[in-house]
Amino acid sequence: MAEQEREQEHECEHVRVAVIGSGFGGLGAAVRLRREGITDFVVLERAESVGGTWRDNSYPGCACDVPSHLYSFSFAPNPEWPRTFSGQPHIRAYLESVADTFGLRPHIRLKHEVLMMRWDADELRWEIETSQGTLTADVVVSATGPLSDPKVPEIPGLEGFEGKVFHSAQWDHDYDLTGKRVAMIGTGASAIQIVPAIQPQVAKMTLFQRTAPWVMPRMDRKISGAERWLHEKVPATGAARRGFLWGIRELQVGAFTKHPDRLGLIERIGRSNIARSIKDPALRARLTPTYRIGCKRILLSSTYYPAIAKPNVDVVASGLKEIRGNVVVAADGTEAEVDVIIFGTGFHVTDMPIADRVVGADGITLAEAWKDGMESLRGATAAGFPNWMTIIGPNTGLGNSSMILMIESQLNYLADYMRQLNVLGGSAALNVRASAVGAWNRRVQERMKRTVWNTGGCTSWYLDANGRNTTIWPGTTGEFRAATREVNLGEYEVVRAPVREKEDA
Predict the structure, then answer these.
(1) Residues 448, 472 contacting (CB under 8 angstroms)
(2) Which pLDDT band holds residue 11 (cuts at 50, 70, 90)?
(3) SS3 of 121, please?
(4) What are the coiled-coil residue ranges (predicted)?
(5) What CATH number belongs to 2-149+348-496?
(6) Which residues of 155-188 are buried (b: 16+ CB within 10 A; e: fewer)?
(7) For labelling, which of 71, 78, 113, 275 has a CA lying 20 to 30 Å from the CA of 447?
(8) Rounded Cα distance, 308 and 302, in Å
(9) Residue range 92-106: average pLDDT?
(10) In whole angstroms, what is the distance from residue 216 CA to residue 195 CA?
(11) Cα 381 to Cα 384: distance, rounded to the nearest angstrom
């Protein structure tokens, strides 16, 4: 009877691998699995289409701050990029084309939000509860990404605001901003694109700036038809262009990670960028950062400062404190009456919500395991969570190059992980040793001490609630690729299913 009950429990669909998310990480994992000959997998996506953060972030002016030819998969070059820095519509279209080109559509389950994942130690598999039902998988690849869940601060009086409110990642395209009084909260990567895009149409914009960002000129231009023709007819030219862009950024890494004092020249360029557009000395002072460039994310824009200089824009050098009816109040007491509040306040990065939905071998969630800070081995695997891997995990972020390079490195690690499981044969799982995770993270944090992200004199979203940098990789992308080329089984415990005693019917 017990055996029959177990069979009934496991009548739900079972797959070899379940990939969570269909952004760059999820689609990349799906392609790599197919290249490894693994076709028994699904991609679970909570939205109605693929694209991840490039689907969700459709605000005016949305574009990438990494050159197009570097912000694409090496195995899926795109000779048709229209600009050196492409906009959101073209990046989203690229991801849709990847799903089509590599035959991923049959594997993708849209509108399948993952509600909970639990490790079944008896069956050595993950039980995955989704909004459309339950399935099981031998391996889970979590590719939800750090820029997937918008972060809106708790502001007193926000519920009682009489106007329109939305986050930059949840833009309301049906709401007409023409002639409106707008409060823009935040001055991060999204805000510096939104401000110049909407400034000409709004009646008044009040920009709430807690910390002035370093903004460098954006050297963007149209890619000529001749260039696109050459990259299509002679693919090696596109690869060479990508290689050049990669090499330049690799050479810059040392200044960020070992010699932050060498960034002074870059700061002078940043100050010149301010001076060209901002003639008011008082405003220029408010917009000039007081920390070392690179400590917070360096932003790229040639239109941000000219937009701020317009008479319908006010910069408040303070964060939003409270809201009284339709009046927004800054921490310094500045007040402004507005019709709409736009939050450009980033995402849950060091406290990823998906961590609350993963229950490991010890019966605790990943969020509980990471309560003192995110930790994983090589940005991929966490102790106590067998056969669970994350793409763009702890300390895999970059401050000056393309995240696609890091994703592809982690895909190499995923491929070898699957090979190791096949070699082990039968019913087996790999659980990373806590000692291996600890040793890896001690090395990472030791290297982090010298970096501009830790010594630059700022507080950034790279740091967790304990002030520890659990986001950035303190080295080159080449170093990370070498570190993730293969799985070292000595860093893992091989887990086998328990032997069941025969039971009478």
Answers:
(1) yes
(2) confident
(3) coil
(4) none
(5) 3.50.50.60
(6) beebeebebebbbbbebeeeeebeebbbbbbbbb
(7) 71
(8) 11
(9) 98
(10) 16
(11) 9
Centroid of chain to Cα 397 = 8
pLDDT of residue 427: 85
Q: Spell 407-445 as b/e; 16+ CB within 10 A means b.
A: bbbbbebbbbbbebbeeeeeebbbbbbeebbeebbeebb
Q: Which secondary-structure segment (H or E) carries 142?
A: strand 133-142
CA distance 388 to 384: 9
Residue 425's pLDDT is what? 86
Architecture of domain 158-219+245-343: 3-Layer(bba) Sandwich (3.50)
In a 3-state reduction of DSSP, which class is residue 298?
coil
Edge-to-edge strands, sheet with 204-208 = 164-167, 340-343, 181-185, 204-208, 313-316
Residue type, 223: I
User: Which amino acid belongs to residue 221?
Assistant: R
The amino acid sitting at 220 is D
The pLDDT, as a whole number, for residue 1 is 42
Average pLDDT, rounded, for the chain: 95
Please name the amino acid found at residue 30.
A
